[in-house]
Target: NAD(P)H-dependent oxidoreductase
Amino acid sequence: MRIVCIAGSNHADATSSRLVHYLAARLQEKGHEAEVVELHLLPLPLYNPDVDEENANVLRLKKAVKESDAIVLATPEYHGSLSGVLKNALDYLNWDDFNNKVVLSVSSAGGAVGVSSLSHLQTIVRNLHGINCPEWISIGGDQREFTADGVPSHEQVVRRVNKTLDYFLALAKNTSSL
Model:
């Protein structure tokens, strides 16, 4: 299965980006193709529906999502919502890109967990005709620590990631024929 993992932060060392890289590595270990799109490395112009001209980074994002079988969206939680850079990227996409694809929402928050950003992501995914994975991953506080190898420092986070990825993959496999 081909899975695109979008790291929705403008911060080069964001814990949400570290988490998405860890998820992608686990997906690859499970035999899947996982592409990470880091929005801090793929600057997009502010979405404007009146502008028809497409920029190369927008086309790269659209191609990655369109060609995927499933999607992971990762965001830091800013002011009780998803990052502006991820929202802007999602504004460039439409139901053709998400239709009947399972989407796993992931967040990292300075506080305990990023539930508000995950709820907002799931609302957007529904409006894009994606299929929300009922499981999600949120890390917060000291759960945002990673080893030098990019592995979460807390065994609880590792277990949560593995359990959620298994659920996500099973759901994506069972819905891929829709």
The mean pLDDT is 93. The radius of gyration is 15 Å.
